[in-house]
Amino acid sequence: QCYRNPAGRGRLVKRIRSSDRSLTGLRRGDLCGEDALTTRGTRGASAVALTIVSVLALDRKTFGVLLSSNPEVALRLVEQLVRRLRHAEEQLENAMLRDRPSRVVNTLMRLAQTDERTPEGHVLQISPLELSSRVGLDVDAVKRAVQQLRDGGYLRIHDEMKESYLAYAMS
After folding, report:
1. Using one digit for the tens of pLDDT, what is the confidence trace for 1-15?
2. Which end of the chain is more exposed for a tag (fewer CB within 10 A), N or C?
């Protein structure tokens, strides 16, 4: 089945060596499970709700009709798959970096490329959980690396408590 998340936040999680690893975040309007509908493959990951969510489940036939009759939906699916591919490439690149702070810096620099520079530098809003998913490390390791970068004066953190999001300002 394919699920469309019209509200709330979630994650795609994969079990690797007896621990769950976060693959990516799911935002409002994201699709998950589409691979089972398009390739008749087996489930490779599980969707986990982080907040109260509403989902729309589609069967294979309905999914096909939706894609063929609605180009906007097909385009959004392609855009989402491209985002996931970029995310996977980023994780591969990070896996090649030896130390954890380098992985965090690499990811923050990639994210900064998409945002405008402010007088303070690049200001990014990202939760520790989302950053850990993008970096490919557990949340505690990411928090320690961020603290090292903060202590070294390489980044500043604003509004640590606001909705458990951190904004990293990098000059």
Report:
1. 455 555 677 888 888
2. C
Strand 2-7, strand 54-58: pairing: antiparallel
Strands (DSSP E) along the chain, which ranges?
Answer: 2-7, 10-16, 19-26, 31-32, 46-49, 54-58, 117-118, 121-126, 156-158, 166-170
Task: Indicate the residue type of 79.
Answer: E
Quote the pLDDT of residue 40: 66
- In whole angstroms, what separates CA 25 from the centre of its chain? 4
For tokens 């069967």, the residue is 59
Weakly modelled stretches of the chain, pLDDT under 50: 1, 163-164
Number of H helices, E strands in the chain: 6, 10
Dist CA 52 CA 115 (whole Å): 29
Quote the CA–CA distance of 11 and 9 in Å, as a whole number: 7
Q: How far is the C-alpha of 35 from the C-alpha of 55, rounded, in Å?
A: 17
The one-letter amino acid code at 38 reads T
Q: Are 6 and 51 in contact (CB under 8 A)?
A: no
Residue 100 · residue 141 · CB < 8 Å = yes
pTM of the model: 0.63
